Amino acid sequence: MHPLNWAIVVGWLAYVVVHGIRRSTGTKQIEGYFLANRSLPWWAVGLSVMATQLSAVTMIGTTGQGATDGMRFVQFYFGLPLAMVILGVTLVPFLHGSGVYTAYEFLERRFDAKTRSLTAFLFLVSRAMSCGTIISAPAVVFSAIFGWSIAWSVAIIGVPAVLYTMIGGVQAVTWVDVKQMMLIVTAIVAVTITLLVQIPVSPSDALHIAGATGRLRVFDFSFSLTNTYTFWSGVIGGTFLMLSYFGTDQSQVQRYLAAKSVDEARSSLLISAYWKIPLQAMVLLIGVLVFVFYQFERPPLLFNPAHERRVRAEQPAVYGSLESRYAADVAARDVAARAVAQARDHGSDADAAAAMDRYRAQQAGVDTVRTEALALAERVTGQPSKDVNYIIPRYVLDHLPIGLAGLFIAAVIAAAMNAISGELNSLSTATVIDFYRRWVRPVASDEHFMIVSRAATGLWGIFACIIATYAVNLGSLIEVVNRFGSFFYGSILGVFLLSMIPRARASGAFVGLLAGMAAVGAVNFGAPSVSFLWHNVVGAVTVVVVGMIISAAGRVGGGAGPTPARV
Amino acid sequence: MGATMSDDASGARRFRRTLAAVMLVQVATLCALWLLQWTFSA
After folding, report:
1. Nearest residue to A59 via CA among A158, A142, A132, A172
2. Which residue among A207, A263, A274 places its CB closest to the CB of B14?
């Protein structure tokens, strides 16, 4: 990469660390460190919420998915606006109004200590592992592209984020998130404009070419429990997932607990409701435009340079033959794509349709060679190709102008740091508030809790970096943990839904939580093809139904627990 | 007490307005995406 690009990346990293530390005023008490003394404006909280969910996987994985699979992934977010509105009316006033530090602390006030501790423990396990994978995904890509060791790639992403989060707490996290969101949106817009300039046909022709391969097909109205990306999966399953994520996950809840008031907390969530779908569509559109760009520019046969080097070294004859076929097919496709634009601009409808058919046939030929090359790479390396994650980085480094490439790489690192810092801050909060202060040291000075909080942030950061460094070898373990995570996400939502029903009792909540996780486990093992989006629906509904039955049985049997505390 | 109720009413009114705006933006976004698909995927 050009030295100017490196200067931009290094300059940005230095800037965010300094900025984060400078914004850490008022963090001498734990309320300041964890909740910014509940003083943050709604727009900063809202941008921070969006930044925490927008990881490097979005910048390189989702854009890559746009290039290979098109726009249909955006359906995944169709439930988000509805979920934000439901949360604004239900959980947000409860949580913000109760003056808690964590969502799980609220559950003890409403139910009992064991429900709080179990939900907080499940959060710590899943988020710590996910934090590792969030660092690992871009680190693996950077390692393959720049030839760095995995440990070095992890350090570049992880160390600055751990540093400013540890020192500055939620203030540093929020204000750095705001700046980094500006960088990310600027990079997305700049790359989109650059692509439109670089593609040698009009935007309308470019979109017709993308549409001819199905990449602009957004809506799929089929009802399928096994397909994640359909309209109904997005609206129904997605609503439950987003309710779970934004309503019960401390990494999100902590953001809006730091808002000045309930109204500001609600408004902060509505920023995501407004902007998430358009932003995600824009990210996918970048991928679609990169696909069109490579119709007129020869793309690599394998985008992952590490795999390409290895396959070329170990299977030179087979790979050479594939490359020859690929070169011929790509050249023919280039001619066919230009003919589409020519026919659309100057020919009849019949000419345009015929040109489109010829183009589709050439594209199918190119796809066939790529599929063979990917299968060869998997055989040679023994790893899944994951070539989709390398499409955008290769485009950025090979074709973006100097300066803009640095801006985009800085935006990818920024996205990773946003997600990590929010999660580290919430991991530290749950550790200190839900375990250390609850069970180990209920009374101590603020100085003491501050030292423990910073140490917890640092230790979770080190843990996440270790997981990220070894994530390549821990692949199956991480999959198990992620699958385990999907067991209880909807179930925890169910417990929070129960907390708003006056007749629900502590015994019902705890047994309901266990029943919800068991039900999701049964669906997962009994019908593994069912999309994970539906797990949240199963978990939440089971917890509410079982929880209410147990609560009612407790009342009938006279064994009712204590009256729920008012919140 | 009266001021609190008035604040609540004003907050609720603002929230309803924002809610209507969010829904309007979502419908507009979905229409734009549908138009994109309909125009270019034929």
Report:
1. A142
2. A263
